[in-house]
Amino acid sequence: MRSTTAASGPLGVLGGTFDPIHFGHLRTALELLDVLALEEVKFVPCREPPHRDALPERGEVRLEMVSAALEGEPRFSVDAREYRRSGPSYTVDTLASLRDEHPSRSLCLLLGMDAFLGLPKWHRWTELLAFAHIVVAHRPGWILPADGPLGDVLAAHRVLTSEELHADLCGRIFVTPVTQLEISASQLRRALAQGSDPKYLVPDSVREIILRSGCYQ
């Protein structure tokens, strides 16, 4: 799909449970924003992850933490549409709704390498490229698939320059390295449950919410 009258610059979409959001998420988003010349990045917290147990006890506090983490960076925004939608939070539904809102704008779904390699397990994963480009934040030591369903899609849709993400509205896959901050949300949750202080792993505003709410105790 091509556009000659794009309403504005490319929009990055970064989804996740953000349980909790940490500097690894933020640094990756910032580097991709600059490398891809995105106009903005929307952080889309997942309300009901299909691949994990529901998180009702931390739903609102996760949204609060993401909002707090993004303060001070005007090119970042939080998008709560998955909180307004009932049922499992499927990425394909989120991208479809964003495409309806931005019919003439390039959309870029931002994924880590681990998420990209797990795409064949996602709901209606082959439809993602009908709504957006896929940008993969490459991790050292990980190997892109050369065969299988994902390898076939990569061979058919991969581009080597970010400029092609501006020329087309969707349908491309771009792989680019980013600085890897080895912060694991699952390990962070376990440490918090044992009473560890998340200082220097999350923004101070997020740390204050965690300590105040006791949401991981």
Enter the CATH topology name. Rossmann fold
User: What is the terminal-to-terminal distance?
Assistant: 48 Å
Please state the second-level CATH architecture: 3-Layer(aba) Sandwich
Low-confidence stretches are 1-6
Written account of the structure:
- This protein is of the alpha/beta class and about 220 residues long.
- It has one domain (about 10-210): Rossmann fold, CATH 3.40.50.620.
- The chain is built from eight helices and seven strands.
- The protein has helices at about 25-35, 60-70, 90-100, 115, 150-155, 165, 185-195, 205-215, and strands at about 10-15, 40-45, 75-80, 105-110, 135-140, 160, 175.
- It has a seven-stranded parallel beta sheet with strand order 3-2-1-4-5-7-6, with helices on both faces.
- α2 (about 60-70) packs antiparallel against α8.
- The radius of gyration is 17 Å and the shape is globular.
- The N and C termini lie far apart (about 50 Å).
- Mean pLDDT is about 90; it is low at about 1-5.
